[in-house]
Design goal:
It is a single chain. The protein has three helices and two strands; from the N terminus they run αβαβα. It is elongated and about 60 Å long. It is mostly helical and 220 residues long.
Length: 220
């Protein structure tokens, strides 16, 4: 559970006082786990390395917030505004983020394992080396999204838009790629593997002919 003093300081003191607290108490790791922080304006808030596991941040305004290495595992970010937030190396495993706007957001080496990102806007988001194993990206907008070397094992990308997505070295083993749009042979051929991936028949036939190595067991 959250540290009541930390929650009270954040809610009553506001962003300016909280950020001052973070600058002067760098050894303290904020514990806001399970806290109800829904609907608050946290623009520019420093939550780096904070424990927000299971916190409710639905409808919160986190524009330009610093969430570097924060633990947001199981957090609820439904309808939260996280535009231009810094989520580098954050733990968002099993987080709830349907239809969230993460366009232009830094998510380098972020853990999104099992996260719900259905219908999310990830245009120009940076997710290289991210872990999206088992993540739900159905109908997500992945225009110009950087997914280089990302782990997308068993990820659900059904109906996602892959316009100019960077998939170089991405692991798409067992991923669901049914009904994806803007997915060309050239784009998917840059992936590390498509072993046991679920693809539309026409695209599957083309890729098996042009890049058969993508469908061999990567462990062999």
């Amino acid at each position: 559970m959250a540290n009541p003093e930390h929650v009270d300081r954040l809610i009553k003191g506001g962003v300016q006082e909280w950020n001052k607290f973070r600058r002067t108490s760098q050894a303290i790791q904020p514990d806001l786990s399970g806290a109800d922080l829904s609907g608050y304006d946290f623009t520019g808030l420093d939550l780096s390395q904070a424990n927000l596991q299971g916190a409710d941040l639905s409808d919160a305004y986190l524009f330009h917030a610093n969430l570097t290495e924060a633990n947001l595992s199981g957090a609820n970010l439904t309808e939260a505004d996280v535009l231009e937030a810094n989520l580098i190396k954050a733990n968002l495993s099993r987080a709830t983020m349907p239809r969230i706007d993460l366009s232009g957001t830094g998510l380098i080496a972020c853990n999104l394992e099992g996260a719900n990102l259905e219908g999310a806007n990830l245009t120009r988001a940076s997710l290289p080396w991210g872990n999206l194993t088992g993540a739900n990206l159905a109908k997500a907008k992945l225009h110009l999204t950087d997914l280089r070397e990302a782990k997308l094992i068993r990820a659900n990308l059904e109906g996602a838009s892959l316009q100019d997505t960077s998939l170089t070295g991405a692991n798409l083993q067992e991923a669901n790629l049914q009904s994806v749009t803007h997915a060309s042979v050239d784009l998917l051929a840059k992936a590390k593997t498509l072993y046991l991936a679920n693809l539309d028949q026409a695209l599957l036939v083309q890729l098996q002919a042009d890049a058969p190595g993508l469908f061999t067991n990567p462990l062999n």
